Fold:
Amino acid sequence: MRKRLVCLWAVLTLLTGLWVPALAAPASQVPVYVDGEELETAAAVVDNGVTYVSLYFTTLALRSGSLLRPDGMMEGEDFLLAAWPGQAYLACNGRFLYVPGLVRSHPETYETLVPVRTLATALGAAVEWKDGGVLLDGPGAWGLTAQFVHMWEMLSGRMHREHDYYRCHAAARSDRSGESDGFCQPFTDGPMNNPDNPAEDLYLRCITSANTSVWMTTPYFAVEDSVVQALCIAADSGVDVRLLLPGIPDHRYTDIVAGSYFERLLRHGVKIYRFTPGFLHAKSLTADGEMALVGTVNMDYRSFQLHCECGVALYGAPCIRDLIADMEEIMARSMQVEAGAWAKRPWLRRALEKVLRVFSIWM
Structure:
């Protein structure tokens, strides 16, 4: 029995030694930014939706004066950090942080690579959180105010004045030519509206009516087939369809579900970008440079069917140009998903996509 265990241990050791280098092959290389500056010596790799960074160069950028000890550990004034390829944890000052995809080794430079979120947690740093929104004031904000009053009273709250008191009584602003600053329509959605879904209907309307472009930012992507089909038809029709997603997700399983749509979208010409510096939390859509949706609505089942959400539809408003400029900045700092590289993702990832897709309505 002991001999069998020894043989089994030897086989597992051999397989692990072969498996780790295979995992280390980067799906794509992306830049690394620390405090807004790109590190030229610390190119990261993205594999299975996880961003891996150089342990040495990234630690040196976060904690100047750090030293690499002969035993491979990183040492600074207030920390001692250790991570070796093949291990499932990163150790820092006695804390053991779990690394689901294992600590890795770069196949060319042999640098030790660790998930950026895990390293940031160990050193007390923060991964960038990119958000976006618009400010409504004046008569345009009344729709959201009215909905707040409605929900407040529905939950047994009491308003101290009549409803009209909270309405903006100033006239809508206009520019010197006498033309208005565009059109805005606040909207809300929630489970009480079912089976009607105003938020999803607005997204579909913008996608299907676009003539030149549809750009979207969302932290999560788990939608019905009608939305996917609308995006594919728009792209097939020559519309510039772009989907901007986080490069560093906050929920790994929901990110895997989002990836289950990529192959079909890419096949029809939809451009997909991953915001590599961190988590992209902005929820917005622009169509033809004239129409925009901004709010709390994620492109997933929970926002479209279950959650109470709000937002604003904009048309011809000057802030739409700012939204487009912000999206262009996001894409400049993002990695575009290539169909060829995505088709080579591991079989385990493919299997998880199919399994988790079944449960996507609850994610």
Observations:
- Residues 62 and 124 are 9 Å apart (CA to CA).
- The longest helix spans residues 2-24.
- The longest strand covers residues 183-189.
- The chain has two domains: 23-126, 178-362.
